[in-house]
Amino acid sequence: MSHLTASQERELRDAFDLFDTDHSGKISKSELKRVLHALNIKVNDHEVTKLLSQMDTDHSGEIDFNEFKTAMGASYFKKHSKQELHTAFENFDEDDNGYITADELNHILLRMGRHLSRAEIEATVRALDTSGDGKISFDEFCKLFD
């Protein structure tokens, strides 16, 4: 995907690093399944295997960054519908109160195998929280995808 900007490539690298929970530089089948599960995407082993094989162009059994970038680049940066964004938001908003709190963000990241410090979680919320109320609204969440 040579048409990605440096910023877009960094965003994809950050997403890749969330999937690559053991920091091996590759996404294994178990890592892919764990992240999909953490995002409440219901898949069976056959579906995970199929998804992995579609992305794994060198047939190594794992997804490296270039394979991830090729597979995800076009869809990752497409404009998402409000419904798609709302569905994603609902996966984070565990108590359905219309906001993502630091605890909810931490919980989903832990389910993905990511252990961030409380300071890192709070800094992430602050970076997205344009209203200053200490939580992420749906509109603030949507700005991530503009």
From TrEMBL:
PANTHER family: CALMODULIN LIKE 3, MYOSIN LIGHT CHAIN 1, 3. This is EF-hand domain-containing protein. It comes from Rotaria socialis. GO terms for cellular component: myosin II complex. SUPFAM superfamilies: EF-hand. InterPro entries: CALM/Myosin/TropC-like, EF-hand-dom_pair, EF_Hand_1_Ca_BS, EF_hand_dom. GO terms for molecular function: calcium ion binding. Residues 7-42, 43-78, 80-115, 116-146 form the EF-hand domain. Keywords: Calcium, Repeat.
